[in-house]
Specification:
The structure holds 2 protein chains of 2 kinds. Chain A is α/β, with parallel strands linked by helices. Chain A has a domain at 4-53 and 99-154: Hypothetical Protein Ychn, Chain: A, CATH 3.40.1260. Helices cover 35% and strands 15% of the residues of chain A. The longest helix of chain A is centred in the middle third of the chain and has 15 residues, at 79-93. Chain A starts with a strand and ends with a strand. Chain B has helices at 16-26, 43-54, and strands at 5-9, 33-38, 57-64, 67-73. Chain B has a 4-stranded mixed beta sheet with strand order 1-2-4-3, with helices on one face. Chain B has a single domain, classed as TusA-like domain (Translation Initiation Factor IF3). The relative contact order of chain B is 0.26. By secondary structure, chain B is an alpha+beta fold. Classes of the chains: A alpha/beta, B alpha+beta. The interface between A and B is medium-sized, with 12 and 14 residues.
């Protein structure tokens, strides 16, 4: 009996891009059938160009910084870009996969990626902004698979 | 230990060693043995979990300081 995993990816920052793609690619390697439903800011993870993904220490007290930094400093122009650059350097130096690589691994192992049609319309996105090989659907589409799945997670 | 294919996952972090292992297994025949080299300390637990869940057999694990070498026999079906 094949197990299955249904994920909702609702966040579009560089750090939050990891959990859905790591879990989905690993589950696929464990022979799970996997679908990820991308909604609201999660849609950013399906765009052709992932270089816009950023991470911000602002409003995230748990993010460790090399030196203590008050919110007032973190809100200065350029701080977000700097935090993103530092995070990307750390990711590469620790042998952690890039989001592109994990997304490709998901597609290659048959993970089904579904973009929320309502969000696409809401934000005036165009279908050609997104990578090939994805599907478009709504909440009922998600439940058709999630209702029969062994594991369901909202990320 | 004899093996049929080797996958080098040194320097890679979770979940890449498992993904490389899975890819390696897809490129050998049933009952053949895949050797995977990893430097990720978390891979010891992960490879055990991978084999328990997929039915592939972990024949041997060699630990040499910070390097972990797994020998995995591909399941029959």
């Amino acid at each position: 009996m094949v197990k299955s995993l249904a994920l909702i990816a609702s966040k579009g920052s560089l750090d939050w891009a990891y959990p859905p793609f790591i879990l989905a690619s690993t589950a696929a390697a464990l022979d799970y059938e996997v679908q990820i439903f991308f909604t609201f800011y999660g849609l950013a993870l399906l765009r052709k160009d992932l270089s816009d993904l950023k991470v911000s220490p602002l409003g995230n007290p748990a993010m460790s910084m090399p030196i203590p930094m008050p919110n007032l400093v973190q809100m200065l122009p350029g701080m977000e870009s700097m935090a993103t650059m530092m995070m990307k350097q750390k990711i590469a130096s620790k042998g952690v996969a890039s989001i592109e690589d994990l997304r490709t691994a998901c597609l290659e192992s048959g993970v089904k990626l579904i973009a929320c049609q309502m969000t696409v319309d809401l934000f005036d996105f165009k279908n050609e902004d997104f990578i090939d090989g994805i599907e478009f659907g709504g909440a009922a589409t998600f439940f058709q698979f999630a209702g029969e799945s062994d594991v369901q997670l909202f990320i | 230990m004899e093996f049929d294919k080797e996958v080098d996952a040194t320097g890679l972090n979770c979940p890449l060693p498992i993904l490389r292992c899975k890819k390696g297994l897809s490129e050998i025949n049933a009952e053949q043995v895949l050797k995977v080299i990893s430097t990720d300390p978390g891979s010891v637990k992960d490879f055990n979990a991978f084999c328990v869940q997929t039915g592939h057999q972990l024949l041997q694990l060699d630990v040499d300081e910070k390097t972990f070498v797994f020998y995995i026999k591909k399941r029959t079906i």
